[in-house]
Amino acid sequence: MIMPTFKKELSLFARLWLGLGRLIGRIFLFLIVVSLIGWAVATAWFAWQHRGPVSALEQIPPGEAAMTQDVIQTAVRIVDQHRESTRYLRDAHAKAHGCVKAEVQVLPELAQSLRQGVFSEPGKTWQALIRLSNGNAYPQFDSIRDARGMAIKLLDVRGQPLLSDRQGQNEQDFVMFSHPNFFVSDVAEYRQNVAAQADGKKIMAFFPGWNPRTWEIRHLLIALATLAPPPESPTRTTYFSVSPYKFGEANAKFRVMPDPDNCPAYTLPPRNHDLPNFLRSALSQQLSTDRVPACFVLQIQRQDANKYMPIEDTSIEWREQDSAFETVARITLPPQDFDTPALNLQCDNLSFNPWFGIEAHRPIGGINRLRKAVYEAVSDYRHSQNAAQ
Question: Has residue 94 got a pLDDT over 70?
Fold first, then answer.
């Protein structure tokens, strides 16, 4: 009598488990279906909200000047927070992998419509300085997920500078980093985001209140995507201007991509990613030790105002299917010795600003208007504090 009873109980137990399994499977399938519907609705809503045409002119919202002053105060607070014992650092991109000399050659066969500003003379070669960096406001190990930056300064550029106090500097800067769009849309959002981050509330910067309508989940995902694993070398990364510039009469964004086919073949020896400065080491290995140049292409993406390619929202990536990138110049980093105390100090004292340039490449849009004020204020503060030490 014991065995039949045991078998009966076992059979009942099995049926219960099978029933529970079917229930869990149905719940799981239901959640998948709901998720797919939610994704489809969200995608459709985003596409409906973000469709062309857009304005080709800047649109300055009320109160932007006051918000800019708030950002300046927060940026100076960040500089104070992250200062080292002997120097004040930048409020972003504090750690450089090096400042290197470069040659930027305008394409000899450049189309007439692309001959604008510093690209107006086909075949011309500009001498330049390029700073390669990590994005964080405090120097950290290169292995930590981060954005990577490239700032280009063309030298001996003639023309009326955008800023009256830059007379005689004869420069054109392009400031870029390693993601095509930014994690904030405009100055208002940047103000609340950077203030939260300065208070140590990095994730909460995207959740400013209890109201879900104020949550910036899409922008959080952009920020997380921006914090990418390190490349093998700063010369193996693609960099984007993120915000738009004037390009003659048009509006455009810039991109710099590696162009190994126009340089001698080179295989970088394996890097030890546990070393804190392995990206500087990789750059030095190629340019200084192995004496092999690195090559890039400089490209522009012109705005098509009939597509959703807004000027005032830097969180929106301008899609290549709406407007293709066009190569306007080639960049070469020749073999050189750049990692010396004197050159590193010179690199630390260099300032890069998208407003250091000429009218043909005027930065436009809210984030660029913010940069004009913040870069100048933070640079002046940093240099004054470093000179006083």
Answer: yes
H or E, element range at 343? helix 341-349
Q: Is the CB of residue 158 less than 8 Å from the CB of residue 171?
A: no
> How many residues appear in the chain?
389
For 220-236, letters b (16+ CB in 10 Å) and e give bebbeebeeebbebbbe
Q: Where are the beta strands (DSSP E) in 54-199?
A: 96-106, 125-134, 148-155, 171-177
Could you give the CA distance from residue 93 to residue 371 in angstroms, rounded to a whole number? 14
Q: Tally DSSP H helices, then E strands, for the chain.
A: 7, 9
Q: Phi/psi of residue 339, each to 5°?
A: -95, 70
Q: Smallest Cα–Cα separation from 296: which of 335, 339, 248, 239? A: 239
Judged by DSSP in three states, 232 sits in coil
Q: Exposure string (b/e) for 36-69, b if CB count within 10 Å is 16 or more?
A: eeeeeeeeeeeeeeeeeebeeeeeeeeebeebbe
Which DSSP helix (H) or strand (E) runs through 250? strand 250-258
Read off the pTM. 0.83
302, 298, 272: which is closest to 130 by C-alpha?
298
CA angle 42, 46, 50 (to 5 degrees): 175
Report whether 129 contacts 149 (CB < 8 A): no
Residue from 251, 229, 226 nearest 240 by CA: 226
pLDDT in tens, 284-316: 999 999 999 999 999 999 999 999 999 999 999
Which is nearest to 242 in space by CA: 256, 224, 230, 259? Answer: 256
Exposed/middle/buried for residue 103 (C-beta within 10 Å: 0-12, 13-18, 19+): middle
pLDDT of residue 383 exceeding 90: no
Q: Which two tokens stand for residue 25?
A: 């499977």
Peptide bond preceding 53 in cis form (omega within 30 of 0): yes
CA distances from 133 to 124, 286, 316, 369 (A): 27, 17, 24, 23
